[in-house]
Structures are given as C-alpha cells and as structure tokens.
Amino acid sequence: MVATNVGLEPQQVSSVLDDPSWAEAVASTEQQWLEAGINAVPAYILNKKHIISGAQTTEILSDVILELTTTQE
Fold first, then answer.
1. pLDDT surpassing 60 at residue 58
2. Contact (Cβ atoms closer than 8 angstroms) between residue 67 and residue 47
3. Positive or negative: CA dihedral 33, 31, 19, 3
4. Looking at residue 8, what is its pLDDT?
5. In 25, 41, 46, 71, which residue has its Cα 20 to 30 A from 52's Cα atom?
C-alpha cells in the first residue's frame, strides 16, 4: 500500500477512504475555494481580497506586494 510507504497507518487510511464524510468535506472545501476565485495551485491571497493564482516568479510576487502596500498608504 502506498500509504504505508509514506508512513501512514493502513487502518486510518482505510477508515478515511471508506468514510463518505471525508469526500464530502473535501468537495465542500473545494467549492469554497472555487467560489473565492481560486482555480490554480499555488494560490496566494493578499489582504483577504487579492488573489495571485499559479506559480509566479519572485519578481512578480514582489512587484504585486509592493504595489499593494504603496496603494494602501
């Protein structure tokens, strides 16, 4: 079992996979993120309202953060 290879307990893994409430929780959380506009990983949320989706360079992240801090002063 792959779970054992990465150090997880087989009984716990089976329990989670067999319990439909886990799938429901994941689907609910996914829906919340989609409604928030997140559709890529990674996703950065700045000041609880600005989203940067997908992998970005350090330069782009830095530029956005600087822009947000200078426009809010």
1. yes
2. no
3. negative
4. 94
5. 25
Query: SS3 for 1?
Result: coil
pLDDT of residue 40: 87
Cβ neighbors of 10 (< 8 A, separation 6 or more) are 1, 3, 4
Q: How far apart are CA 31 and CA 34, in angstroms?
A: 5
Instruction: Extract the tokens encoding 69.
Output: 């801090």
Strand, helix or coil for residue 29: helix
Tell me if residue 2 falls in helix, strand or coil: helix
Looking at residue 47, the DSSP 8-state letter turns out to be T
Q: Strand, coil or helix: what is 34?
A: helix
